[in-house]
Amino acid sequence: MMSRYEFLKSLGLGGAALMVLLTSCRQEEVVKPEGPVDFELDMESPDNAVLRMKGGYVVANGVVVARTFHGLLVAATRTCSHQKNNTVVFQDNEFYCPVHGARFDNKGVGLNDYGKKGLRVYKIMPLPDNKIRVFS
């Protein structure tokens, strides 16, 4: 089997063009919450309207906030524990990283080998005026 480097060289690419292509495949920079997480979401905001639907989610401050199929609100870091990609979403009533398929339950417990390191979850508290607080 031919390596990526050999394949690109066979196309006649070299020098700066080859370096750009090879470095563009590196893992994206991780953007995760700095320090403790503590923020509010206004459930009346159009940006958060999807949270009224079961299975809906939003991403705010490096955190995925979702409504489960049972109607509960849950929150977890967007940073996958498998390879630190900032790609976790909420899908099929669980947290999911589409990069390699890491799966986590709503308590952050890994559901497959890629998710075995778990996922950091956060607390959610209802506030007056139809707001919620997400915090660590």
Give a verbal description of the structure:
With about 140 residues, the chain is mainly β. Helix content is about 10%, strand content about 30%. The protein contains two helices and nine strands, in the order ααβββββββββ. The protein has helices at about 5-10, 15-25; strands spanning about 40, 55-60, 65, 75, 90, 95, 100-105, 120-125, 130-135. The protein has a six-stranded antiparallel beta sheet with strand order 1-9-8-4-3-2, with no helix packed on it. A three-stranded antiparallel beta sheet has the order 5-6-7, with no helix packed on it. β8 and β9 (about 130-135) form a beta hairpin. The longest helix has 9 residues, at about 15-25. The radius of gyration is 19 Å and the shape is elongated. The protein starts with a helix and ends with a strand.
Q: What is the element layout, followed by pairings?
A:
Elements: H1 4-10, H2 15-23, E1 38-42, E2 57-60, E3 63-67, E4 73-77, E5 89-91, E6 94-97, E7 102-104, E8 121-127, E9 131-135
Antiparallel strand pairs: 1-9, 2-3, 3-4, 4-8, 5-6, 6-7, 8-9
Number of helices: 2
Low-confidence stretches: 16-33
Mean pLDDT: 84
Structural class comes to: mainly beta
What summary fits the major beta sheet? Answer: 6 strands, antiparallel
Biggest sheet strand order reads: 1-9-8-4-3-2
Shape: elongated
| Total count of strands | 9
Order of helices and strands: HHEEEEEEEEE
Q: Rg from C-alpha positions? A: 19 Å
Fraction in helix: 10-25%
Terminus-to-terminus distance: 47 Å
Strand composition percent = 25-35%
